[in-house]
Every structure is written in structure tokens, then in C-alpha cells.
């Protein structure tokens, strides 16, 4: 029996990191939104590492924030440690990484969701999608609640036909022994979706009091850390950071693992799903890199009010007894009390080439998917897709065109384009190397890249947008001022240059020329020739980066310009590639499957050659001219 | 249309006539102006005007050729873009060096059929011709692809693959430093980058040096010398080589029964392959040699079938004559210094007179006649793939120059204290340029390299 449970504009199924962003975005854009989750206590839960950020991932959090999303604000409110990574490298790869109080993180997110107007949070296990005339129009839960919707977003994480594997033991389960979503997977299959089977895993957790920290190295946070959100000004807990601790596996660890490989599901064939290469289990690492004498283990607190410690580096699906022996072979963990064991989890994912770049499925209109269901891994990757799926589900519900972020505008754009154009044969993790315009996609300029878009779609308030514009203006004006400021070879200037170890100048030079010298910073110039109003730290940083790396930035901008021309050449959705004369067979098949929306996207499909692209261009030109002629006559 | 600027040889390669390098795109005038010395500054030239002058290498001011340059501004040109055409002296040497120079100064080599494609996309070609334009692109691309694939196994590829491997290992190392900053992977230092890029740069310079001397071996028409044992194949090879400054190949690690020399005949580059004598045999070792000879024949653009005039026609030779009559084959009747026993009628039945050459390899008599026959075949178009081989070679040289530039930039950046993630941009460019030389054969997965080279994970 089902009953009518309500009508919504947007329904989001799953309240993990993707679902929370999707639901908040849709509600903030004015859509009546329902967020369904199997267990209300699991909202924004971190089933694996208690941390957010790092290279590429941290960039995504900044991008989410620049678009008006929640993850950045939420981690700022709940971090227990904050570090800027890669500070010795270029500005593009500086990356913020936070350790989260994972319990506070989820409670804070839940509170935000509960307070959000237009947003309803409900516990319920979605089992069936209602599809009429090729479009998704609602959802039915296990308890018979029938919700109608204009659009539906699926963010099922690892719950979709989830199966936990722990040594010889396997059982149907979502993460952390939650109920899995089994019927929904069947529903997707019946709708014709091609599903992949992926695997991920998590390490055991140990009791803090059982760790001998003297045998480990301390890993403290930054003293004056930055925050993820452009809106965060100061957080009191910044001064109460908790350290992480570093130790290593021992010879004994490797021996125990090698002796027990016959019980490792990775090698007994119990695990069918494809695991990510970048996140291997410890047994996998030891088999594949047999020469490496030891592996790093980081011990990370899971929160302020818990004794649980996450053992990063020991992800494993070995039987529980072996896990305990492995743990106790690690210096510092000789007396470890294992509070939870590690496990591997297999789950269903939708093959992501079945999606449009808007994250709407090609098979069912008004149905969107985001997060692990799309074959990704990681909270940040999930949240990044979540906000886009939420935005586009809301825009669809309102009858507006979807929003797509270019590869040159954000890691979110890189990720989604990779997924829908190339697909993935392992859980997809963002890496900075996946971005071809890495220097443009910096941590510092996420607002410059995306806040105008966030404002346009209604996620950035007028007040915040004005602040953003003012900042941008001050940066631009300061760069112009430096360009117009002459520094003469006088005593003060030469003294500064000598002090930083830079060659003296013979003639007057402008500020930009000086600032491009590797040794000279904005602060040096500011002292010699201060602006009328001192800039904020962020603005100074922006001026310095934009000036110092002009050469490289220009080069990348030229490449972007070239690519944009290709992106602007649109391909009609209804094109029948079989009828395009001259295309190679392989190109016909690939193009027909992916159905790229532009020549640019087509160019990224493997197996589509430059000759195929040329032929497609000629075909489109022909088609356009014929269509134009038909319209004019 | 604001596309990049492309260039190619627009005329069929032919001896004695004029050859034309066509340049099209927004920078075409500027690109050629850098290389053109004349009373007229090309940048100020009116559209549809012709200018007399010289093409020089701006680095050395060395004159390459005396030329006529035609400027046609868009949209009143073939492609509707700014087009500059450089008419050089005929033959190969001049037009080829001019093209190479243009490619090094802002233009890239046009893809097969690209001028026509642009003309169509810019509305210069009638709608009804769309299918013909597509057919042109398809056929030219397919042909270029075949040549490229064959070249992929060539000696330059063999030298480029390890260079790319060294670069990608370096890139993977840099990337791991960036994406896994807390992993216990050694930091990439400026010294490390310098020494790796330096090694590759040295090799690239060596390749460029060879190419400047025309020594790039993949360049050239694959010419197989075939015949019975003792017909005089090796003597012919040596005679051709002596006459044409042969370069003895130095492909490391290749030991085979086929001897290879590169020669240039009237500017046409030939890769001469001397094969083991072909005959029916039961000797295992010799059989392998004979099989290889047959393999080489299948790959050949041009075949020199050597017959011994001093002996009557053998059955093996009859078979070859039949087998090769529809290929680009020249019958070389050798040993004219000795009394003749060969029945020529049998040969003349299947082969026209201009494809039969009489000579004595030993006495080096009649070699020039063979050379004339070869160039006649080449220029008549009877030898396939010549121009593609040739032009792709100009592209490779341009790509090698790009690689060199990127590596030099990377090395310079290490001295300037530029952070590794920016230096990586140049290293990656050099890796990509080398990859474009290999074309389809280039493996491209950085991530595969990262995850096989380093143990990463949480």
C-alpha cells in the first residue's frame, strides 16, 4: 500500500555530502525540496577519514563555497586541525586540509538543513522511482510514502546494493552497518541503466588511551590557519587544534600480511568490485610494492569528544583477528584496542557516461545523480557534484537551462566532464594533474572563478556579491597602481633589493616588473610605496599571484581561448551519427554513446580522431546552412 | 574565424617546376614577414600583390631560396582567411626547408585536407560539395595515418619512446609531490629536474642535428633491393651509397639480415634496404632471411629488382618478376660488363622500357640512369606516400624544435626559482610535443605511471 505523502519541486535521495549540497542548493534557489535519508542520524556522515580538503579536493571545497554551497562553512565551524599543504610549491597547488570533528560536522550540517526554509528532511528508504513518459516524477519509500516531484536527485553513496566484506565474512550493508538500498538498484536496472560495481574500504579505529604516542611523530596544525569559506572571519576553536600522529608499518606488519594473504578477500576472489588504485588497502600495497620496507601510518582523532582514532594507511578487509595483529605490529600501537575493524564495501554505481554534463541522466529526464553513484570517491568530489546536481535539478524544475562549469573554471568542471565524457573504470578521485589549466584553478581565486555564477543562479546573496566585487576592484586597481608606480634606483629601493638578495636596478622600473622578481614580494613594495588604503591579506595575496605568474597565466589563458572556440561549436542533441558520411566506425560508436554537446567535448573522447572532428565540423556546417536556408525560405 | 595559422606544401612535388608553400590563418602574414627579406615589408603589403625577395633563416640570416610571395587577405582568398603563398624553386630541397622554417615561426602543419575544410567552413565552398570535402579529409587522413603507423616502428620512434618515458617518470614524480604532499616520496629538486631535462634535451638536440643533415632515417621512401643471391645487390647498394653520401645506420640493438642505408637521390630521400638473396632453400637460417626479405617487400614503396645479366633467368626470378609487376618496381639488369646470357624479352613483356635499367654496380657504370629512373617514378606519382613521408618529417622537425624550447624553458625556470608545479607545465609540453611525433602510437596515461611508480593511498 502506498499513500500520497506530498508534492515537491525537487527530491534528493540520500543525505551524504552530495545530497546535503544538492538539497540546500535547490531549497536556497527557492524550490520546495525534500531530502530523504535512510537514517536521520547519518546526515553528512564521514564513514572513512575524518578530514576534508587536500590538493584538488580542498580546491573543490573552495569552489563549492564560491558557488554558495555549505561544505566550506561547515568544516570551518567544526575543524579540529587546519593545515595549508604544498606551501613550498606554487600558488596553484596550495591546498587547505582540515581534520574534522566528524560528529560535530554532521550535527552542524544537520542543523543547517533543519533550519533551511523550503527544505524538508525525512527519514525514509527510497525503493522505487516513478517514471512517466520518460521523465522521473516521484519516489516511493519502503514504508509506502509516495512523493511527487518535478525533479529527483539520486545521491546514494555506497548504499546502493552495498555489501560489506571483512575477511571471510560478507553481508549486505551500507557503510558503518547501515541498511543498504537494494531495491533502488533494481529499479535503476529496470529503467535500463548500466551499473558498475565498485569497491572502497576503510581502516580500523583504535582507542586513544591504548596508543603510545611517544613512539610516533607529532603532526600539528598551522598556527594562523586559513579557512575554507570566503565568509568565515574567525573561529574560536582555531586556537584549540588537535595534532595528528605519524608512525610506520614494521617488518612484522608485512610478515603478518604476507602470511595471511590466503585469508585476504582482495586475493581470494571474494571482492568483485573494482577498487581505486590511489586508495589501496594495506595488503594491496604490500603485495604490489614488495620492495618498500615501510609505509606511513597517520593516527587522526575523530573528534573532540571521542577517544576514537582513525588509522590512516591501514585500510584493510583482512579478517578481524588479522587486523588486530597488524595493528599491534605498528610502533605505538603495540597495545592498541581496536574499537571498530576496517572493512571493504562494494556498491553499485551508474556508469557515468550515461549522464549529460548537467548530471541529468540521458535515459530518464528530470533524474539527476551525484556523488559515489557516479563512480567517484571522496566527500569533496561528492559535494562538488551534489551542488551542481541540486542547482540543475532546481533550474529544471523552474524551466531554466542547466549550468555547466567549464574545465577552465573549476575542478568541479574537470571532474564532471571527465566522468560524463570518458567514464571511469575505478572509483574516480580528483587530482590536480587531471586539470589541464591547473594554474588558473587556484585555491585563492575560486571566488573570482565562480562567485559571479553563484550570484547569477541565486546562491550568493547581494551583500556577499557586493563584497566580492569590491575586493575584485581593489585588486585590479592595485595592480594598475603598481604598473603606474615608478621605482627609482634610489637608496631605499636598492637597500630593499640588497636585503632580499635581488640585483640592484640601474634605471627606474615599474612596480609590476619589480614584483615579478622571484625574491620580491608585495609587502616589500607596499612598504616603499604604500597604497592609500591598505589591502586585506587576501587581496595582497591576489595581487602578488596575479602579477608574479603573469607569464604562465597568460600562456594558459591562450590555451583556454583555443579550447573555448571548440566548446562553443555546439552539436545538436538529436544528431544521428550513423548518418554522418565519412566518420570512422569507431567514432560513430563512441560519439553515439557519449552524445557530446560540443566539438570540444567530442575532442576529449578517446578514439575520436582529428579527422573525425573535421568531418563532423563540415557535417555540422552543412546541416546548419541547410537548416538556415530552410528557415529563411 | 580566429583559428591558428597553418601551412603546407600546396603543389604536387615535382622537379623543374615551381613549388608553393601555402600559409593560412590570422598570423600568416606576420609569420612569413619574419622570414622574408625584400624591398617590401610584407606586413604593409596590399592584398592580392606579389613580392620578390628571399626567404632567410632569421637566426642566421642565411638565404634559403629566392622566392615570390603572394599576399591574399581574407575573406578574398581560398580559405577566406589571410593567405600567403611562397613560390620557391622546384624540386624538394628548397620547398622543404622553407616549410620547416615556416613551421618554426608560428604556423603548424595543416592537417590533411585542412585548407579545404577551412574554405568550406568559411563559406568559400558550395554547400553541395560537403560530401566531397569530407571524402577528401577522410582519404587524406587515412593515407597519412597509414604512413604514420608504419613510421611508428621506425628508428626515430625507437629513440623517442625512451625519452618520453624518462619525461613521464619525472612528471609523475612531480605530480606525486603535488597531489600527495604528505607521502614519504622524495621531493623533486631543481637539480633533479635539470639533470633529467638536460639528458632528454641532449638527445633531442642530437636528433635535430641529424635531421638538419638529412639523416633522420624514417624520412625517405622505403626502397627494397631484392634479387637472387649473387645478383649484385650489395654492390648496387654500395654504389648508390658512394654516389650519394650514404649514412650508415646506427640503430642500437637491431641485428637483422637486412642492411640499411639512407641516401638522397636528386633530393629524394631513400631508405635503401638490402635483403638476403631470395631463393628456394631448405637451410633453416637462410629460410628466415628469405622470409624477412619477403616481409620487407610488403613494406616497400619502391623495389629495385636486381637481375644478373651474366646468367639466364632463374625460376625464382620469374616468380619475383610476376609478383612485383604491379608494384613500383624498377628492374635493374646488373653486370653489363660481363657477357650477357639473360633473355630480355621475357622481362620486357611485363615491364615498360623506362622501368628497366642496365648497369654495372661493380664498375659503377649506369648508376646515374638508375637515379633518373627513380626520380622519374617519384615525380610521376608512381611511388606512393613520398610526399606524406616528406611533409610529416617537416612536422616532426618542428615538433622537435618545440620540445627543445620547452625543455630549455623548464631548465631555465629551475634557475629562476620557479615552483615545480609551474616548471611542470613546460616539462609536460615537451612530453606532449614528443608524443605528437609518435601520433597514435603514443601512450598517454600519466595516472597509470603515477600509480605504478609510487605506492599511494590512505
TrEMBL record, chain A:
NAD-binding protein involved in the addition of a carboxymethylaminomethyl (cmnm) group at the wobble position (U34) of certain tRNAs, forming tRNA-cmnm(5)s(2)U34. GO terms for molecular function: flavin adenine dinucleotide binding. Its cofactor is FAD. GO terms for biological process: tRNA methylation; tRNA wobble uridine modification. PANTHER family: GLUCOSE INHIBITED DIVISION PROTEIN A, PROTEIN MTO1 HOMOLOG, MITOCHONDRIAL. It is found in: Cytoplasm. The gene is mnmG. The lineage of its organism: Bacteria, Bacillati, Bacillota, Bacilli, Bacillales. This is tRNA uridine 5-carboxymethylaminomethyl modification enzyme MnmG. Belongs to the MnmG family. It comes from the Bacteria. Residues 547-618 form the tRNA uridine 5-carboxymethylaminomethyl modification enzyme C-terminal subdomain domain.
UniProtKB/TrEMBL annotation, chain B:
It is an enzyme of class 3 (hydrolase). Its EC number is 3.6.-.-. This is tRNA modification GTPase MnmE. Pfam families: MMR_HSR1, MnmE_helical, TrmE_N. Gene3D superfamilies: P-loop containing nucleotide triphosphate hydrolases, Probable tRNA modification gtpase trme, domain 1, tRNA modification GTPase MnmE domain 2. Residues 220-379 form the TrmE-type G domain. Its cofactor is K(+). It is found in: Cytoplasm. NCBIfam families: mnmE_trmE_thdF (TIGR00450), PRK05291.1-3 (NF003661), small_GTP (TIGR00231). Homodimer. Heterotetramer of two MnmE and two MnmG subunits. (6S)-5-formyl-5,6,7,8-tetrahydrofolate binds at residues 22, 85, 124, 458.
Amino acid at each position: 500500500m502506498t499513500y500520497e505523502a506530498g508534492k515537491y519541486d525537487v527530491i534528493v535521495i540520500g543525505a551524504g555530502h552530495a545530497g546535503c549540497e544538492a538539497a540546500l542548493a535547490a531549497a536556497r534557489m527557492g524550490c520546495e525540496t525534500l531530502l530523504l535519508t535512510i537514517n536521520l542520524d547519518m546526515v553528512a556522515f564521514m564513514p572513512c577519514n575524518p578530514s576534508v580538503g587536500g590538493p584538488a579536493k580542498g580546491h573543490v571545497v573552495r569552489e563549492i563555497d564560491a558557488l554558495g554551497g555549505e561544505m566550506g562553512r561547515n568544516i570551518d565551524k567544526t575543524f579540529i586541525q587546519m593545515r595549508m599543504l604544498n606551501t613550498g610549491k606554487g600558488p596553484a597547488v596550495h591546498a587547505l586540509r582540515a581534520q574534522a570533528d566528524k560528529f560535530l560536522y554532521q550535527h552542524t550540517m544537520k542543523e543547517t538543513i533543519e533550519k533551511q526554509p523550503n527544505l524538508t528532511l525525512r527519514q525514509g528508504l527510497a525503493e522505487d522511482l516513478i517514471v512517466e513518459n520518460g521523465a522521473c516524477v516521484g519516489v516511493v519509500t519502503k514504508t509506502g510514502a509516495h512523493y511527487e516531484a518535478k525533479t529527483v536527485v539520486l545521491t546514494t553513496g555506497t548504499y546502493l546494493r552495498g555489501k560489506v566484506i571483512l575477511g571471510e565474512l560478507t553481508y549486505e550493508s551500507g557503510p558503518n552497518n547501515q541498511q543498504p538500498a537494494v531495491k533502488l538498484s533494481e529499479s535503476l536496472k529496470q529503467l535500463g541503466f548500466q551499473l558498475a560495481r565498485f569497491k572502497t574500504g576503510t581502516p580500523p579505529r583504535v582507542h586513544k588511551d591504548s596508543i603510545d604516542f611517544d613512539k610516533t611523530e607529532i603532526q600539528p596544525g598551522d598556527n594562523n590557519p586559513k579557512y575554507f569559506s570566503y565568509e568565515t572571519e574567525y573561529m574560536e576553536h582555531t586556537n584549540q587544534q588537535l595534532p595528528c600522529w605519524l608512525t610506520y608499518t614494521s617488518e612484522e606488519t608485512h610478515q603478518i600480511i604476507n602470511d595471511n594473504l590466503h585469508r585476504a578477500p582482495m586475493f581470494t576472489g571474494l571482492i568483485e568490485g573494482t577498487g581505486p588504485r590511489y586508495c589501496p588497502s594495506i595488503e594491496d600495497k604490500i603485495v604490489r610494492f614488495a620492495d618498500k620496507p615501510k609505509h606511513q601510518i597517520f593516527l587522526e582523532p575523530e573528534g573532540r569528544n571521542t577517544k576514537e582514532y582513525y588509522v590512516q594507511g591501514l585500510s584493510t578487509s583482512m579478517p578481524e583477528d588479522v587486523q588486530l595483529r597488524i595493528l599491534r605490529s605498528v610502533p605505538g600501537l603495540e597495545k592498541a584496542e581496536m574499537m571498530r575493524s576496517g572493512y571493504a564495501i562494494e556498491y553499485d554505481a551508474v556508469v557515468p557516461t550515461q549522464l549529460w554534463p548537467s548530471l541529468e541522466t540521458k535515459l530518464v529526464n528530470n533524474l539527476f545523480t551525484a556523488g559515489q553513484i557516479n563512480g567517484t570517491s571522496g566527500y569533496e568530489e561528492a559535494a562538488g557534484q551534489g551542488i551542481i546536481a541540486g542547482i540543475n535539478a532546481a533550474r529544471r524544475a523552474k524551466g531554466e537551462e542547466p549550468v555547466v562549469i567549464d574545465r577552465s573554471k573549476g575542478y568541479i568542471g574537470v571532474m564532471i566532464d571527465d566522468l560524463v565524457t570518458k567514464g571511469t573504470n575505478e572509483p574516480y578521485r580528483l587530482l590536480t594533474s587531471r586539470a589541464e589549466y591547473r594554474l588558473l584553478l587556484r585555491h585563492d581565486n575560486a571566488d573570482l572563478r565562480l562567485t559571479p555564477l553563484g550570484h547569477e543562479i541565486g546562491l550568493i546573496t547581494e551583500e556577499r556579491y557586493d563584497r566580492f566585487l569590491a575586493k575584485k576592484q581593489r585588486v585590479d586597481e592595485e595592480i594598475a597602481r603598481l604598473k603606474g608606480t615608478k621605482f627609482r634606483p634610489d637608496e631605499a629601493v636598492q637597500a630593499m633589493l640588497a636585503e632580499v638578495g635581488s640585483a640592484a636596478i640601474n634605471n627606474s622600473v615599474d612596480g609590476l616588473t619589480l614584483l615579478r622578481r622571484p625574491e620580491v614580494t608585495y609587502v616589500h613594495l607596499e612598504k616603499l610605496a604604500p597604497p592609500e588604503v591598505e589591502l586585506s591579506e587576501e587581496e595582497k595575496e591576489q595581487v602578488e599571484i596575479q602579477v608574479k605568474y603573469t607569464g604562465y597565466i597568460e600562456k594558459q589563458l591562450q590555451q583556454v581561448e583555443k579550447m573555448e572556440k571548440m566548446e562553443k561549436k555546439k552539436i545538436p542533441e538529436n544528431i544521428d551519427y550513423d548518418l554522418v558520411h565519412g566518420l570512422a566506425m569507431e567514432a560513430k560508436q563512441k560519439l553515439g554513446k557519449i552524445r557530446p554537446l560540443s566539438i570540444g567535448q567530442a575532442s576529449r573522447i578517446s578514439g575520436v580522431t582529428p579527422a573525425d572532428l573535421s568531418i563532423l565540423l563540415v557535417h555540422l556546417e552543412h546541416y546548419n546552412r541547410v537548416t538556415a536556408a530552410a528557415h529563411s525560405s | 574565424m580566429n583559428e591558428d595559422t597553418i601551412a603546407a606544401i600546396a603543389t604536387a612535388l615535382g622537379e623543374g617546376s615551381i613549388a608553393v608553400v601555402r600559409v593560412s590563418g590570422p598570423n600568416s602574414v606576420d609569420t612569413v614577414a619574419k622570414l622574408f627579406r625584400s624591398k617590401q615589408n610584407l606586413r604593409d603589403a596590399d592584398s592580392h600583390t606579389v613580392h620578390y625577395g628571399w626567404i632567410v633563416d632569421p637566426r642566421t640570416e642565411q638565404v634559403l631560396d629566392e622566392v615570390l610571395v603572394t599576399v591574399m587577405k581574407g575573406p578574398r582568398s581560398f580559405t577566406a582567411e589571410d593567405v600567403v603563398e611562397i613560390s620557391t624553386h622546384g624540386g624538394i630541397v628548397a620547398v622543404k626547408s622553407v616549410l620547416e622554417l615556416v613551421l618554426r615561426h608560428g604556423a603548424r602543419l595543416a592537417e590533411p585536407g585542412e585548407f579545404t575544410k577551412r574554405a568550406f567552413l568559411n563559406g568559400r565552398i558550395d554547400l553541395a560539395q560537403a560530401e566531397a570535402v569530407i571524402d577528401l579529409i577522410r582519404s587524406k587522413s587515412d593515407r597519412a595515418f597509414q604512413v604514420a603507423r608504419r613510421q611508428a616502428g621506425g628508428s626515430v620512434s625507437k629513440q623517442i619512446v625512451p625519452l618520453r618515458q624518462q619525461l613521464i617518470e619525472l612528471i609523475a614524480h612531480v605530480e606525486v609531490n603535488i597531489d600527495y604532499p604528505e607521502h614519504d616520496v622524495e621531493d623533486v629538486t631543481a637539480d633533479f629536474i635539470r639533470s633529467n631535462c638536460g639528458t632528454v634535451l641532449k638527445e633531442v638536440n642530437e636528433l635535430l642535428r641529424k635531421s638538419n643533415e638529412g639523416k633522420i632515417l624514417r624520412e625517405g621512401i622505403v626502397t627494397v633491393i631484392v634479387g637472387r643471391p649473387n645478383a649484385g645487390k650489395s654492390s648496387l647498394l654500395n654504389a648508390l651509397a658512394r654516389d650519394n653520401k650514404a649514412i650508415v645506420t646506427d640503430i642500437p640493438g637491431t641485428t637483422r639480415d637486412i642492411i640499411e642505408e639512407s641516401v638522397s637521390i636528386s633530393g629524394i630521400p631513400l631508405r635503401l634496404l638490402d635483403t638476403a638473396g631470395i631463393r628456394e632453400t631448405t637451410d633453416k637460417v637462410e629460410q628466415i632471411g628469405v622470409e624477412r626479405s619477403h616481409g620487407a617487400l610488403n613494406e616497400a614503396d619502391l623495389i629495385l629488382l636486381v637481375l644478373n645479366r651474366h646468367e639466364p633467368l632463374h625460376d625464382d626470378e620469374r616468380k619475383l618478376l610476376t609478383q612485383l609487376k604491379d608494384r613500383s618496381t624498377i628492374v635493374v639488369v646488373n653486370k653489363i660488363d660481363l657477357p650477357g646470357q639473360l633473355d630480355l624479352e621475357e622481362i620486357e613483356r611485363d615491364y615498360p622500357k623506362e622501368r628497366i635499367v642496365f648497369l654495372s654496380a661493380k664498375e659503377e657504370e649506369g648508376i646515374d640512369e638508375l637515379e633518373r629512373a627513380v626520380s622519374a617514378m617519384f615525380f610521376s606519382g608512381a611511388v606512393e606516400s613520398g610526399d606524406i613521408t616528406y611533409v610529416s618529417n617537416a612536422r616532426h622537425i618542428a615538433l622537435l624544435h618545440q620540445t627543445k624550447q620547452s625543455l630549455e624553458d623548464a631548465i631555465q625556470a629551475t634557475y629562476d626559482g620557479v615552483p615545480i608545479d609551474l616548471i611542470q607545465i613546460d616539462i609536460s609540453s615537451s612530453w606532449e610535443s614528443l608524443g605528437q611525433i609518435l601520433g597514435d602510437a603514443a601512450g598517454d596515461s600519466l595516472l597509470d605511471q603515477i600509480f605504478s611508480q609510487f605506492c599511494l593511498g590512505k
